[in-house]
Every structure is written in structure tokens, then in C-alpha cells.
Design brief:
8 helices; single chain; alpha+beta; 4-stranded mixed β-sheet; 11% strand; binds FE2/S2 (inorganic) cluster
Length: 164
Amino acid sequence: MQNEFVLSKQKEFADLKEFIDSVKDTQGILMQTLQKAQDIFGYLPLEVQKFIADETDIPLADIYGVVTFYTQFTVEEKGKHRVGVCLGTACYVKGSQDVMDKLAEELNIKVGQTTEDKMFTLEATRCLGCCGLAPVMTIDEDVYGNIDPKRVPEIIAKYKNQEV
Ligand code: FES
């Protein structure tokens, strides 16, 4: 019997099948397919990995191994907004850990977790190439430089208010 997730994502699975059929005879099919699947679903739950295993004849264990090896893939659903704090050296020495701690407190989650309302996911990032702005935090595509932890509530509130 198909579970609720599969039933609610029929269109997404159909799109993924179409993609797999189009790349079936090409090199590196697994990486391409996982990337596409993550674009479609936003993450790679077990149901999606099983589907890919069935459609490609690649063993599920191999797929799971790749998904958990590469940090670009995630098996957990992400929040609507991805909040990143750069923990690269320049940002770190300028206090990015304090920014991270403040975000964790404000959102009431730890690094790598998603808020219960699925609004925010908190992540640590590597150097973003804008060290002159250290410490740096990002929300989706927006970059915030010279961040003082005191500004965190005000910045987060901006994204919460977009929803109302
Ligand atoms: S170390 Fe943070 S942007 Fe480079």
C-alpha cells in the first residue's frame, strides 16, 4: 500500500520519473537524479530514495550511501527560509558563533534543525567569499554583514512578517 507521502506527491513522482527516463542511458545518472529529486521535493526522504532505486535498478543501500555522504543532499525537510551563519575563520574570529547562538535562542532550535512551523532551518556554512563583511549571516539569497547578535530578532521578524 502506498503511504500518505507518496499519494500526496503523485505529480512530483511523475516529474521525477520523466527525468529518470530522459537520463537513463547517460553517465552519472545517480548524482543527476538525486539533484533533480532534491530540486523537486526539497529533500530526499526514504520514499524518494526507494523510488529512485526501483526506477534505476541501483541498490537502495548505494543510494542511501551517496545521499548521506554528500552534504548537498538532505534527508530532512527544510524550512521555508534557510538561515545560514558563516563559521569560516574570518567570521568566526569576529564572533559568528555568538550570532549562531543568538539565532538558536531566537528560533528555539539547534544548528541543523528546522522550526516546528517549518519556517526556518538553521545551518552553519563555510566561507561565503565576503570575509570583509564578517561576521556574515544569510537568509535564503539575502546576505547580512557585520552582524551584531542584537540585530538577530529584528532580522528574523522581517521574514516572519512577510507571511502575515
Ligand atoms: S569567513 Fe565568512 S565569509 Fe569568509
